[in-house]
Write a structure and sequence with these properties.
Distance between the termini: 47 Å
Order of helices and strands: HEEEHEEEEHHEEEEHHHH
Number of domains: 2
Shape: elongated
Strand order of the largest sheet: 1-2-3-6-5
Largest sheet: 5 strands, antiparallel
Number of helices: 8
Radius of gyration: 20 Å
Mean pLDDT: 87
Helix content: 40-55%
């Protein structure tokens, strides 16, 4: 099971209060100031403390509390893996950043709160720039060069602060792997936005952002000698390769979300993406 069950704010506070108490923590939450932040699998809330229990690190009183969903079969492993990945990568990130883990106990993590907009929100609001897309491409080349796959490459997991500092969220699924483990899902995440790829029209701004990412990512792979079996850049084979990656991601998204995706609709979308791809990359030849 991946989808979490609904719980009220009060039930969530009760769960974290019991978890803290059972682990000898005496943090005092303000029950009137909690806000759900999302999370399709786990319970992720912005919580306020009456005063900061983490004076060693920060005087802020707002923190993110992530409670791992016990209905998921491997939730214990995911909790352990998120903490392990954080410690493995926190000192290797360079221009990339991770929200600091301030405390952790069985199946719960308390993070610093990062104020900003997700990559997904920036695309929807049309505030995305070449800089933001370049940083995202650089991140995926970075983990590929470390022989890792992120495994959860949805665009709401990447945050830019108002000063354009880039943060990566949710490391629970990251593990040794290939870039091919991420790319189809990442590409479909670009265009599976509201109203989304499964509606009749593909938003031109969104698909141009997607193609710009593909362009920058391909160039960075080539520069780092990590192109592997990728066809020569800007050739017809190269464009068809990326089209196939997009369609793989969309089919898997439709299956996961139990959305009908008949062959006729797939053919229409392929034709639109290929036509737009030829227009966008034709200028590069």
């Amino acid at each position: 099971m991946h989808e979490k069950e609904f719980i009220s704010d009060q039930d969530f506070l009760g769960l974290i209060h019991d978890t803290l108490t059972n682990n000898g923590r005496n943090y005092q939450f303000n029950p009137d100031q909690i806000k759900i932040l999302g999370g399709k699998k786990h319970y992720v809330y912005l919580c306020s403390f009456n005063e900061s229990p983490f004076h060693r690190y920060t005087d802020k009183t707002q923190f993110v509390v992530k409670l791992f969903n016990p209905k998921i079969r491997n939730y214990k492993l995911l909790w352990e893996q998120e903490i392990t990945n954080y410690h493995n990568f926190k000192d290797k990130m360079g221009i990339f950043h991770l929200p600091q883990i301030l405390d952790s106990m069985e199946f719960m993590i308390i993070y610093e709160f990062i104020s900003g907009l997700s990559f997904q929100d920036m695309i929807i609001r049309k505030t995305i720039t070449d800089f933001h897309i370049d940083v995202l491409a650089e991140w995926f080349v970075f983990i590929h060069n470390h022989n890792y796959a992120y495994k959860d490459p949805r665009l709401f997991n990447f945050i830019f602060t108002p000063s354009n500092v880039f943060y990566i969220l949710d490391l629970e699924e990251m593990e040794n792997g290939e870039v091919s483990d991420d790319i189809p899902h990442l590409l479909s995440s670009f265009i599976d936005l509201s109203p989304g790829i499964f509606d009749k029209k593909i938003n031109e701004d969104i698909i141009n952002s997607l193609f710009l990412f593909i362009d920058k990512f391909s160039q960075k792979l080539k520069k780092s000698n990590q192109s592997g079996n990728l066809p020569d850049i800007y050739t017809d084979k190269w464009k068809l390769y990326w089209l196939e990656q997009i369609m793989i991601g969309l089919k898997e998204t439709a299956k996961r979300r139990e959305i009908p995706f008949p062959r006729k609709q797939q053919a229409r979308i392929k034709n639109v993406i290929l036509t737009e791809s030829n227009l966008f990359f034709g200028k590069k030849n």
